[in-house]
Amino acid sequence: MTKTAFITGTTAGFGEAMAYRMAMLGYRLVITGRRKERLDELTGKLCSEYKCECVSLCFDVRDYDACVEAVNSLPESFRDIDVLVNNAGLAAGAAPFDESLLDDFERMIDTNVKGLIYITKLLVPRMIERKKGHIVNISSIAGIEVYPNGSVYCASKHAVNAVTKGLRLDLVKYGIKVSSISPGMAETEFSIVRYHGDEDKAKAVYQGIVPLNAEDIADTLEFIVTRPDHVSINDIQLNPKQQANTYMTYRDSQ
Ligand code: NDP
Ligand code: 8X3
Predict the structure, then answer these.
(1) Which ligand is nearest to the Cα of residue 11, counting in written order?
(2) Which atom number of ligand 1 is nearest to the Cα of residue 141?
């Protein structure tokens, strides 16, 4: 029986790579994001290259009514979600708290925390009814450690970890697994978004190191969802070899 995965934020980075990987593993897919052209392109490739049955939903996870409308629009055959990957997220800005923009703080909390909660709240009831399902939240090393100039991004990922642990406690009785992946520095569109489109600043983040890439995260998701039914992976934290923690990175030029 074909399983269904619902992945948020598939128009770039980790989400896109995880969509391809889940298609390769034979899943039927619900892919989401705000950029319709990218969703259409990805849907086309998933269908033609992997013969994947795929539905794309274009909406903003910060907008609860849009989340409801999107989930309600799913065809019946896509409503039983076996794996939910809460991936959509961002960092906005990297500055001391007092110099940061309130709007950036709100975007991070609304996307990384409230968006994850909205989607999970909408999809969990059917998992409970079916007494099966697996939720994989994309957290971050920033959910474990706090670094200078990252207070609210780190707060958002600490919140993701609290929600992950709370869900695990509340859903264990239904046989639903709850996991998280906590990557360190990975080169995607993440830093371009964080620096508000400044590509030079984004590139500098990875100067002198070999960062993680989206395939590394897809590998991690594959490991998590292919364990035997009795095994639940709580969290996998992975870093580039040159990153010791959130603020100690050994660069080639050093
Ligand atoms: P990218 O910027 O490459 O991708 C982010 C994805 O999230 C895009 O598909 C984007 O789609 C989607 N997204 C962002 N905001 C919204 C929104 N409001 N509504 C719907 N979709 C949204 O970043 P990554 O792939 O690197 O990041 C994915 C996740 O991994 C994030 O949660 C991030 O915090 C986390 N992470 C990233 C790390 C890194 O170093 N790259 C390390 C650790 C964790 P669209 O713009 O089309 O809406
Ligand atoms: C992104 C990882 O620590 O570079 O979540 O901000 S970090």
Answers:
(1) 1
(2) 43
> What confidence tens digit (pLDDT) does each residue in 57-116 have?
999 999 999 999 999 999 999 999 999 999 999 999 999 999 999 999 999 999 999 999
Where do the domains of the chain lie, and which CATH numbers do they carry? 4-238 (3.40.50.720)
Q: Which atom of ligand 2 is nearest to the CA of 150?
A: 6
Indicate the pTM of the whole model. 0.98
Query: What does the pLDDT look like over 176-230, one tens digit per residue?
Result: 999 999 999 999 999 999 999 999 999 999 999 999 999 999 999 999 999 999 9
- Which residues carry out catalysis? 153
Cross-strand partners of 58: 33
